[in-house]
Amino acid sequence: EVQLQASGGGLVQPGGSLRVSCAASGFSFSSYPMSWARQAPGKGPEWVSAINSGGHTYYSDSVRGRFTISRDNAKNTLSLEMNSLKFEDTALYYCARGPGNDMNYWGKGTLVTVSS
Q1: Cα radius of gyration (the chain)
Q2: Closest CA to 7 of 105, 71, 93, 113
Q3: How far is CA 107 from CA 24, 60, 85, 94, in A?
Q4: Residue of 43, 46, 49, 51 whose CA lies nearest to 66
């Protein structure tokens, strides 16, 4: 059974930093591209970033230059380092298996709140 569990969310001030992680199990993690997506209050899901099996990274325009995605295949872990956080980054953050246009498994989200 594919399982994806995000963690590390919390409350952070604008301009601050936070790192969220995702523990993956039930599939060959190193073989799959992985993504982060988010859903802000009252809005639809938004793809944020992806990393392919070779480590190449992709970002949405809204986070490029501020967020960094990474993976540790030895630990089956996906991470998202978020810097220079803005109010509009407040959302539930989900890790998902697959690239941005084919996220076929989603884990439970972790809440990131940017507030002063």
Answers
A1: 13
A2: 93
A3: 9, 20, 23, 6
A4: 49
pLDDT, position 100: 85
Place of tokens 């972790």: 110
List all residues 6 or more positions away from 87 whose beta carbon is below 8 Å from its beta carbon.
Answer: 14, 114, 115
Q: In whole angstroms, how far apart are CA 66 and each of 17, 97, 106, 107, 112?
A: 9, 22, 23, 23, 15
What is the block-wise mean pLDDT of the chain (116 residues), using blocks of 10 residues? 96 98 97 97 96 97 98 98 98 95 92 97
Q: Which of 1, 10, 67 is nearest to 36 (CA)?
A: 67
Contact 12, 19 (CB under 8 A): no
Q: How many CB atoms lie within 10 A of CB 38?
A: 24
Q: How many CB atoms lie under 10 A from the CB of residue 68?
A: 16
For 90-102, b/e burial (b = at least 16 CB within 10 A) is bbbbbbbbebbee
Q: Which residue has the tokens 């959302």?
A: 91
